[in-house]
């Protein structure tokens, strides 16, 4: 089994209603497990599109920046409490989630990441570190329910999830900053 | 990655070469010998205490009031699952790092010596309150049971000592990599790195538990403690610790055993992937020790079944790899037939026999583990003697016996002596006795556990209750097995010190197997430890945020300390 089929299989597994329902029943798993795995499935399936539409990617994403911007926009959109709520309420939005995260975030991420310069990669990680820490702070301290579908405790949990991920990113940046790989490789 | 020498041309190459010719560096050998001595003294004392427990459980021995069952049990658990395993692991990996990385740096040597003494101080501080019956809290020291604060300070010293050894290892590895740009870390040191990363990760949890929660509470600075948070932090450590000991044994299976049988290593890339996978996924397995705990929702427990089984995957890969190596080697040496090749294995060589039986033991041990991680099955065996049977198979067989097998070449290598034919024979006998003893004891424990006999309970008939009386025949077997084990433990410790001080002088090889000829070059990404550590942190965060937030935000009032004994 190659990456592409594995990605497709995983994608199909995730959209099976019982699996989707189970993952969406817990707020943090909805946002921090289902959504990232959807992105990963797109990431794995990307070579299929890259070879099919190589001209398109070459023309529109030759330096990786348009792709990474699309990735940031899509992922940023799905970090809003309201969009998660809507995904649970409106099937159109749910459908959009299942399409946008793999194909408009995962695929461009793979196409762009290799093309980005080191500074570009660091910028992306910095943007997400800040976003995660801010979102974490927001979710932990919001005193009212931000989603109709999830309780306050779940929101606080998600906040801590954001914060810990943000910290992990910061550690990674620190590691990049203090350890020069060219001294070892 | 033994081709290292021919590829580079700088000064450290000379040192490495010299190292290979002259054998072990004496200063480094002293470090490993000290650690191994402590390990085997701990085995002797811990084993003796185990025997006392076994005899007591069978109703054959009443322990005196000044050394009661729970003191003995606390010491047995700590001496074996912490002291024996940790000191052996560090001694073994330091010997191998010195060997494969061209001798330890002076700075690293100092660090690991400081670590050694910190650990000794720590163990003494732990043992004193246990002997005074002020710390009968078992090796898990679950709050709200509270021991004398000295016990916890001792634990802090032990952790600091472990950290010294780990960071010494990191410095050593980083230095080697600086001098060997673009090369793969030798496989033995790759295992060492994985083990030290996990050790730091695991002990960080218990350090938080002890320093920020238990010590202030046992000193009376705060009134109450959050029991669920403490237990969760403990198991993030406790589970990972035993998996580290297992990974240590696995390193010998992958790297050493193939050489002992005259074969080649299994795929270098897949070996490294097993290490990386175990490092990333291990810590979160801690939850399978809390399947019966209150306060964790069913769905979270359900998801953790996946995390536990995920660790099973690299273990299965290991089993496959080992048998592939055995068969390949045996067939090369003329073994024939579907299973006939097994006759070609060096059965009378203790350096092979002991780890081989250890691997076999992991089959039932792993199966038992998978059963226990299943909610409904665990309901039956939780806190029963079954569990004790389980970890005597995993630790007492798979891990301990691999360590024993290692000692028959590592100790002579370190002390510039040789393993004589007679000593090898002695080792084979020891291995057989230990095996019979452990099968008997652990079999009895598993069975009597299914009939409801509880763990951690000194002998009682519950006022001659019929069920409790029906356990007695099995418990006699437990005592018989324990006695055999004690005999084997004494023999093993004798062998170690004989090999260290009295065996004939000579050179012993540090057996590290080479990769198969013509194997594809391992990709460089396996060396990106920074990335593996970040992934480990992310996986840990994903697993722990949900339950910990719940425990803290919805916390019950908390518990004052109790002395229940
Ligand atoms: C001479 C060999 C040994 C004998 C006779 C022995 C016997 C026992 C017995 C009877 C128990 C207590 C059961 C209970 O009441 O719950 C026990 C507990 C335990 N043993 Fe052993 N054992 C031996 C070797 C080992 C080894 C080699 C290890 C690990 C490397 C080990 C680790 C443990 C641990 C962690 C406990 C649990 C302590 C607790 O529940 O707090 N034992 N052992
Ligand atoms: Cu475990």
TrEMBL record, chain B:
Q: Which GO terms describe its molecular function?
A: cytochrome-c oxidase activity; heme binding
Looking up SUPFAM superfamilies in the UniProt record yields: Cytochrome c oxidase subunit I-like
Q: Which GO terms describe its cellular component?
A: membrane
Question: Which keywords fit this entry according to its UniProt record?
Answer: Electron transport, Membrane, Respiratory chain, Transmembrane, Transmembrane helix, Transport
Q: Which Pfam families match?
A: COX1
Which InterPro entries has this protein been placed in? Cyt_c_oxase-like_su1_dom, Cyt_c_oxase-like_su1_sf, Cyt_C_Oxase_1
Q: Could you name the domain of life of the organism this protein comes from?
A: Bacteria
Family annotation (Gene3D superfamilies)? Cytochrome c oxidase-like, subunit I domain (1.20.210.10)
Q: Which residues cross the membrane?
A: 35-55, 75-96, 108-131, 151-173, 185-215, 235-257, 269-291, 303-326, 352-371, 391-411, 432-454, 474-497, 529-546
Tell me where in this chain the Cytochrome oxidase subunit I profile domain is found: 30-497
- Protein's GO biological process: aerobic respiration
Xref: PROSITE patterns: COX1 (PS50855)
Which PANTHER family does this chain map to? CYTOCHROME C OXIDASE SUBUNIT 1, CYTOCHROME C OXIDASE SUBUNIT I
Q: Can you say what this protein is called?
A: Cytochrome C
Q: What is the lineage of its organism?
A: Bacteria, Bacillati, Bacillota, Bacilli, Bacillales
């Amino acid at each position: 089994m190659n990456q592409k089929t594995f990605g497709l299989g995983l994608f199909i597994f995730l959209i099976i209603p019982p699996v989707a329902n189970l993952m969406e029943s817990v707020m943090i798993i909805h946002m921090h497990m289902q959504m990232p795995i959807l992105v990963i499935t797109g990431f794995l399936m990307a070579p299929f599109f890259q070879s099919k539409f190589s001209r398109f990617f070459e023309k529109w994403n030759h330096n990786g920046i348009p792709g990474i911007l699309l990735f940031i926009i899509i992922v940023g959109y799905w970090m809003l409490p309201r969009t998660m709520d809507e995904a649970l309420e409106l099937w159109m939005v749910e459908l959009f989630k299942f399409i946008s995260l793999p194909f408009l975030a995962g695929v461009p991420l793979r196409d762009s990441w290799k093309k980005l310069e080191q500074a570009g990669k660091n910028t992306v990680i910095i943007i997400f570190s800040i976003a995660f820490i801010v979102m974490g702070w927001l979710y932990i301290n919001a005193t009212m329910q931000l989603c109709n579908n999830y309780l306050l405790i779940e929101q606080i949990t998600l906040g801590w999830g954001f914060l810990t991920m943000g910290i992990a990113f910061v550690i990674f940046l620190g590691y990049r900053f203090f350890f020069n790989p060219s001294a070892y490789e | 990655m033994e081709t290292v020498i021919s590829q580079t041309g700088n000064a450290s190459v000379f040192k490495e070469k010299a190292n290979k010719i002259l054998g072990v560096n004496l200063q480094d050998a002293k470090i490993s010998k000290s650690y191994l001595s402590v390990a085997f003294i701990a085995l002797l004392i811990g084993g003796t205490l185990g025997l006392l427990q076994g005899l007591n459980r069978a109703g054959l021995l009443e322990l005196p009031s000044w050394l009661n069952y729970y003191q003995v049990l606390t010491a047995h658990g700590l001496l074996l699952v912490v002291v024996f395993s940790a000191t052996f692991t560090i001694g073994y990996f330091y010997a191998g790092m010195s060997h494969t990385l061209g001798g330890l740096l002076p700075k690293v040597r100092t660090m690991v010596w400081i670590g050694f003494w910190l650990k000794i101080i720590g163990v003494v501080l732990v043992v004193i309150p246990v002997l005074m019956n002020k710390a009968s809290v078992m090796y898990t020291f679950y709050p709200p049971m509270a021991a004398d604060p000295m016990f916890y300070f001792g634990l802090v010293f032990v952790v600091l000592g472990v950290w010294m050894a780990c960071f010494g290892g990191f410095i050593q590895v980083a230095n080697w990599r600086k001098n060997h740009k673009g090369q793969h870390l030798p496989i033995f040191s790759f295992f060492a790195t994985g083990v030290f990363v996990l050790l730091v990760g695991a002990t960080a949890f218990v350090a938080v538990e002890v320093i920020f929660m238990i010590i202030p509470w046992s000193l009376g600075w705060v009134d109450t403690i959050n029991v669920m948070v403490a237990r969760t932090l403990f198991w993030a450590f406790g589970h990972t610790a035993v998996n580290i000991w297992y990974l240590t044994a696995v390193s010998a299976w992958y790297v050493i055993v193939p050489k002992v049988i005259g074969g080649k290593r299994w795929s270098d890339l897949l070996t490294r992937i097993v290490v990386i996978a175990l490092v990333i996924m291990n810590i979160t397995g801690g939850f399978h020790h809390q399947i019966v705990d209150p306060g964790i929702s069913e769905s979270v427990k359900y998801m953790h079944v996946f995390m536990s089984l995920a660790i099973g995957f690299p273990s299965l890969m290991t089993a496959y790899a080992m048998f592939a190596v055995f068969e390949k080697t045996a067939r090369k040496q003329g073994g024939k037939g579907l299973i006939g090749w097994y006759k070609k294995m060096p059965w009378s060589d203790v350096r092979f026999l002991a780890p081989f039986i250890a691997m076999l033991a992991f089959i039932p041990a792993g199966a038992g583990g998978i059963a226990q991680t299943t909610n409904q099955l665990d309901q039956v065996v939780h806190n029963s003697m079954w569990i004790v049977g389980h970890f005597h198979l995993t630790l007492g067989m798979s891990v301990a016996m691999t360590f024993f097998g290692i000692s028959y070449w590592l100790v002579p290598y370190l002390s510039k002596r040789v393993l004589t034919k007679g000593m090898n024979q002695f080792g084979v006998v020891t291995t057989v006795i230990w095996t019979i003893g452990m099968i008997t004891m652990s079999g009895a424990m598993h069975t009597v556990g299914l009939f409801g006999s509880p763990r951690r309970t000194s002998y009682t008939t519950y006022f001659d209750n019929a069920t409790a009386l029906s356990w007695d025949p099995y418990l006699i077997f437990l005592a018989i097995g324990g006695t055999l084990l004690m005999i084997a433990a004494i023999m093993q410790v004798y062998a170690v010190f004989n090999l260290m001080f009295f065996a004939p002088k000579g050179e012993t090889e540090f057996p590290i197997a080479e990769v198969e000829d013509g194997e594809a070059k391992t990709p460089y990404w396996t060396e990106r430890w920074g990335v593996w550590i970040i992934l480990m942190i992310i996986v840990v965060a994903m697993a722990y945020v949900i339950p910990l937030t719940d425990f803290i935000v919805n916390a019950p009032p908390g518990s004052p300390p109790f002395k229940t004994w």
